[in-house]
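Repro:
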Amino acid sequence: MRLVLPRLYVILDAALLTIPETECARQLVDAGVRLLQYRHKAASPGELLESAKRLSAALVRQAVTFIVNDRPDVASLAGANGVHVGQEDLGVEDARAVVGPGKLVGISTHNRAQFEQATATSADYIAVGPIFSTFTKENPDPVVGTGFIRRVRPLTDKPIVAIGGITLERVADVVRAGADSVAVISDILRAPEPGKRARQFIETLEAAKYAAGV
C-alpha cells in the first residue's frame, strides 16, 4: 500500500521558536497539523533526547506523526514515529536498522542523482529542495525550483515532500508540480500566530488538491 502523508509537514526548528516547542506543537496540532518534525542542530545529544521525549509523549498519543531530524538513535529512544536523514547523515538502511521495522525513514535530496539513489532505498518518502531560496540553513544547496519536482515525479511512487522557502502564496504551485506534501518552517514558525498560519496552509492545500483533482 502506498504511503499517504498529510499535505502539510511542519518542521519545528528550535532555532526559530520563540515559545517552548511543546507549546508551539500544541498550537499546531489544535490547528489540524498531523505531521511534525523536530530539528535542533545546536542541542547536545542529551538535550535533544529530552526534548524529543516530551514532544513524542504529547504527539504520538494524539495520532500525530512525529519525526526526529538527523538522529535515528534519538528517534528510537524517544518513541518517535520515524527519522529524517540528510545526505551527510546515516544512510537510509542504517537509519532503518536503528529505528526498527514499522518506523518511517525519510531522506533529503538536492539533485537528480541523489533522488535516483533514494528511489532505490527503502526510504518511505523523499524530500526535494530547496524549492525556493531559504534562510533556515547556513549553507543551503542550490535552488531547484518547482520544475525539479515535475522532472522527478515520474521516477517514483514514493511520496515526494517539497521543502525550502515555501510560503502560503507559493504552496499551491508546489502541489500542482506534483509534491505530495510540503515542509514548512519559517512561514509558520515566524508568524504571530503559528496555529492560525498553519490552518491557512491546510485550507490552501486542500483547495489546491481539489483543483488538481487528486
